[in-house]
Amino acid sequence: MIYNEETTRQFTDMMTEGFIFIDAEGKIQIYNNRAKEIFGITYNQGVGHETGQITPGDIIIIGDNSIGMDDGGLTPADLKVMGINDENIQLGDSILAIGVIGKKEMPPLYIYRNPKEVEDELLKLETVYCNENISIVLNYHKKFINIVVNGKEVKMKYRKAIGHMVVLDQYTHQIKFYQAKGYTARGEGLKELLRGKVYRGKGKGVEDFNVIGRSIFDIHSNSSNTVEFFEAARDGNISYKNEYREINGRATICTLNPIIINNKPSGAVLKVEDISEIRKVIKERDEALLHLERLEHQLREEETIYAKFPDILGDSPEINRVKKLAYRASKTNSTVVLLGESGTGKSLLAKAIHEVGKTKNTPFVHVNCGSIPENLLESELFGYEGGAFTGAKREGKPGMFELAQGGTLFLDEIGELTPLIQVKLLQALQSKSFYRIGGSKSITVDVRIIVATNKNLEDEVAKGNFREDLYYRINVFPIIIPPLRQRKQDINIITDQTLSKVLRRIGWEEKRISIEARNLLYQYDWPGNVRELENIIERAINLAEGNLICSRHLTISQGTITNKNEVETVMPLKEVVMAAEKRALEEALVLFSGDKVKAMKALKIGKTSFYEKYKKYHIGSS
Questions:
Q1: Are residues 129 and 98 in contact, defined by beta-carbon separation less than 8 angstroms?
Q2: Which of 132, 58, 140 is nearest to 96 (CA)?
Q3: N or C of the chain: less Cβ packing under 10 Å?
Q4: Cα–Cα distances in Å, from 114 out to 56, 126, 140?
Q5: What is the rounded distance in angstroms from the CA atom of residue 471 to the CA atom of residue 417?
Q6: Is this model's pTM higher than 0.70 or not?
Q7: In sequence order, which residues have a C-beta less than 8 Å from that of residue 477 and are 6 or more positions away?
Q8: For residues 484 and 125, what is the distance between their CA atoms, to the nearest angstrom?
Q9: pLDDT digits (tens, 9 = 90+) for 301-337
């Protein structure tokens, strides 16, 4: 193999990740094109400007959301060159300022605030200065600073802090410099520029900034991440894989490996992946939700939705909203995340979404992430090649992603995934491809993803247990299934449907539930939700010797029954009346063995009224 510097450059420039190699002295030896793009070292966008420096007479426009942070170490004293000499300005303050270098006859204009004391989301300065219309806006909520000069806009976004600047030429008043992404790497912080440091040109045709041979500290400042990189190159004792790092204000996933030659540290390699695309994912999610809102008018009447989800029991406003969202979700390929307590029916809803949509005749693969050991979960999800590890089948094995090709992959209890599996899952979701364990061939899949968890993923992200980038990747279409205690209106429907289903399955005679037993069911808080209710009804069927299920047949702990005197909410009168009407019809039909004529005579209602209620309460449809 022919090896030389040009070959290495071409090879690393082909990589889709940033790749930086420094020697044991911290000097940069390789810095590929992708790394330059990530950190803004290559900046060929916009109209651009020539190389230059700030000189006396130039008009300086500054927007800084936190003095001293990510602005080159700016201090309030550095602002004196603009004529700002205010002892009340402190490090950490936000400042918007306009001034002229070296001209005392042109007093500066500025406003400053302590960000912790700002009530409004905007800090704004608009004026005519030196006959130029100038506006500076700092948006704390959306995190950007926008400088506008005579209609020309220079906007910069930030994550934590930013020092933004625009400079107007003293003679022409044209923009001779504007701040852009990558200013930290280029050494163009506010402090350096105000002290007269030469800045680089921007725009098409500008020669790339050559970083080879320079100290890594010149490009990435003296941050903890840079120090760690240097120590790995010098000592060879530090390494990590796929960890979140914020470098030069950019959110990245990094892998650090020292280079050891002849048992001696000879440098280190840093591989960098830009995950600032989280914003792009959020935008895609918002656009998807907007599109789905436009489909609202296409939803059929409530009866149609009810018919499409016959296994999702209940008729309360809360569960009907879940059904509507599930119907919308079934019409898209967006990732769906089902949230709710254990026993609320997340698995049932996932299967229903799959069957209602166009994927009905495609595979539905259910993976319970919490029940598979970590050392097996990776091979279960992504499969393996023959001989990949001890005990592997000789012919290999396809993973769940492959088995779900063209259909739906349901990842239940996703909150239980370990960090290693989270990384691999994120990569598979982003690229729609993966490698089997021990494989060298990339496998591309077309799979619709539904995930479920009973955990609060936002809390898990805050605790560091769940990756933020994976959270945003899956949280495209969330559906929250309310617990049964928040939709007690559905208890009667679920009870009746479960009763009929179990009796048909076991082939027993008809049984009914007494009013006393129904009241007990309504008072219970249902910590186990629908699953617990179904289990208690089936157990009661087996315990009741006659045709009537009484309260003594319900195995409910008295300690979890709400005291009527302590009930904070009252069931609406209309719902009470409806429930009573339905029970009366059902009990009359049971009493007269299904004879509708005898039932309506006993109830003393007309034929039209009887059949209206019979249809309204879905009697006989279970």
A1: yes
A2: 140
A3: N
A4: 30, 20, 12
A5: 12
A6: no
A7: 285, 288, 289, 292, 325, 328, 329, 332, 334, 335, 336, 337
A8: 53
A9: 455 666 778 888 888 888 888 988 898 888 888 899 9
